[in-house]
Every structure is written in structure tokens, then in C-alpha cells.
């Protein structure tokens, strides 16, 4: 049993003014089943600050127009805002050029784009693509589809019982047949943070390009694509306090130049005749059709909001909150954590003796607590741990230690219901 003195000493430190920050998120003020909402499903999607919501309203009230091809003022203003957002993303991830920042629908869309385009040009029969056992389905299925099309092979880096990739096994998988590596930075179901810098360095010794799935990391840690030296990186706006339907694919300019377009349509061309089409320059070559204009602008606003707090301060506070959550969950008898990596983010997957995860989720919902239950789009991880599902609490910087206390006491209540 952990003493109250230890818990209080941890609880009383706070590096962020969280109560003030919570005022920025209107949704957090509501009651769920008559109880204050405790939103702990941030790995699925994050809530939106008023600053971002207002930006969306403002766009539709005063700027709405199609971009890139209008001579009228509204179109020029919308184009300018959209391109300004691209610049904000470029600075946020420290990309070298604007041409390296491609707007997509989200992480899934970005991975499909690369699997399709890179796969089309560079993957042949008997080639191998490496992923890990920690991947979300969206970083498995596009590669399986590619392998089926090209008669190539998918190789999977195994994980240990803590949910960490086994680096020596990764090294053993690399051969002259390896043509691409696509790997998650932070696991959405176990919280494991992968040693992506080491993976990239190793891959580059063999000239193998690497894609990083940053869906669960870009909102928590400073991402610097130049320092990481990753070839591609993808993430979703909606997990970064922006709306759904917008995301980013970063790619090194030299590589993107070599890739064929993913989709054809307006905006991605430079000239079209029935005989021949020439393509637009980067990044537009990969942005066919009218994009999610307000989504892009709001992603820029979300980045402004995050910058106003500071990603380093967010990282620091979330670490503090995670350490506290770990302490509180450890106290609960008959709770088994799933995913106990040494390097782990603010995601807590667990099972309770004798209670199905869906029942945990339902009982907690009646307390106003939103967690996620199920396989979290990572069925191979569930198979690895021989379980059908977990309950998962995932944190963001607007969560408080009081909410963690309430989660812990409500989990204890679950046992009372089932007693
Ligand atoms: N990769 C990881 C690690 C995720 O957590 C998710 C979503 O939960 C995705 C990819 C897919 O993201 P999206 O559905 O926004 O495309």
C-alpha cells in the first residue's frame, strides 16, 4: 500500500495552471449522467479549445471560399490562411521546406498515400517491408494490401511481455530484401514509446527509408523531423486539438519528388490534355481535389494554441500526471496493467479480474468518466497478450490529479457492483 504522505507529496506539485487551461475547453464543463465529465479518451480524439472552435466559425462566417484558383478577395484570403497553416505545421515539426508538408485526411490517409505511391514505384516481388507488433491497424492493413498487390512480404518486429519491441530481433529482420520500414512512435493501446531514433539510424545504415506514425506522439512530445532524420512522418489533426478530417504527411523533399501522385484530380496538375498530364509541384502534387480548408486553418490554430502553452510544458505536466496515475492504479488489487514498458506515455491499458472491459467502461460512464474499451484497433497486440480487450485511460494536459483520484475510486466501485 502506498502511503497518503507519498501520494499527497506527488499530488501537490503541478507545473501547469490546469484549472485555467480547462476554462479554454467548453466541452469539459458539461455533466454526463449528472456527474462532471472526466474525459480520459484522449488517445481516440482530443477535445477542442474555444480558440480552435472560434476559428472554424470565423472561417465559415467571413472567409469561406475555394482556394488556390480564385482571383476574388475571399479566395485569396482563404488561400493565404490555409498556406499560413502549412507554415505553422512546418515550424511545429521543424521541416526544412514548405513543400515537405502535405495536408491529408489524417494518419490513415497519410500511410495509405505512402504505401500506395512508394509501393507502386519501389516495391517488387519478394521485397520485404518491416512493421512492428505494436502497430495500429492503419499501419498494418495498407502494407498488407501492398504486399498482396506486389507479391512482397510483411515482416513484424516482435515485442516482449512489457510491450517493448525487441531491438535485436529488428536487427535480424533487416536484409537486402528490406525496402521500407513503417513504425509507430507511441503505441495507442500500450503507451510504449519506441526508440525511433535508433530504428531510423539503423535503417539508414542500409539506405532503407522509414515512416514514423506519430498519431500518438506529436501532441505529447517535441517532434523535430530534421533531428530525427525520418523520411516520412504522419499524424492526425483531431488528436492534436484540431478538427477531424485533417492530418499531415511530412516527407523529405527529395523522396517526395521521386514518388508518383496518389490520386488524380484538380489542383494536383500543372496541365492536362487528353494525351498527357503534367503534375503540379510539391506539395500540391499530392493534394488532389478541394481539401478540408477550414480543417487545415484550424490545425494551424491548434498549433498556435499549443505553442501558447509550450509543448515542453505539456510534456512535463503530462509526465507528472502519468506518474501520479501509475501510482494510483498500482494500489488497486486485481488490476493488471497491460503494457509496462520502461519508456511509456500517458496511456493506461488494464484489465480487472472477473470483469469484462466493456462492463468497466459502462460502469465508469455512469460516473461521468469516458474511457475506451476494446482492442483499440490493435488486435495483434490483444492476441500477443491473449486477451480480447482492455480498458484504456489516456491522458491530456487538461486532465487533473483529482480526476485520476476519481478514476481510481470509481474502478474500486466496479468491483463493488460485481461483488
Ligand atoms: N496510428 C495510431 C498509433 C493511432 O492511435 C491511430 C488512431 O487512433 C491511427 C494511427 C489512425 O488515426 P486516424 O484514424 O486519425 O487516421
What would you say this structure looks like, in words?
- It is built from 15 helices and 17 strands.
- α9 links the parallel β8 and β9.
- The model has no long low-confidence stretch (mean pLDDT 96).
- It has a seven-stranded mixed beta sheet with strand order 4-10-9-8-7-5-6, sandwiched between helices. It has a four-stranded antiparallel beta sheet with strand order 13-14-17-16, with helices on one face. Strands 1-2 form a two-stranded antiparallel ribbon.
- The chain has two domains: 154 residues, Aspartate Aminotransferase, domain 1 (Alpha-Beta Complex), CATH 3.90.1150; 257 residues, Type I PLP-dependent aspartate aminotransferase-like (Major domain) (Aspartate Aminotransferase, domain 2, 3-Layer(aba) Sandwich), CATH 3.40.640.
- By secondary structure, the chain is an alpha/beta fold.
- The chain is globular, with a radius of gyration of 22 Å.
- The site of pyridoxal-5'-phosphate has 13 residues, from α5.
The gist of it:
The chain has 419 residues and is α/β, with parallel strands linked by helices. It folds into 2 domains: 4-48 and 310-418, Alpha-Beta Complex (Aspartate Aminotransferase, domain 1); 52-308, Type I PLP-dependent aspartate aminotransferase-like (Major domain) (Aspartate Aminotransferase, domain 2, 3-Layer(aba) Sandwich).
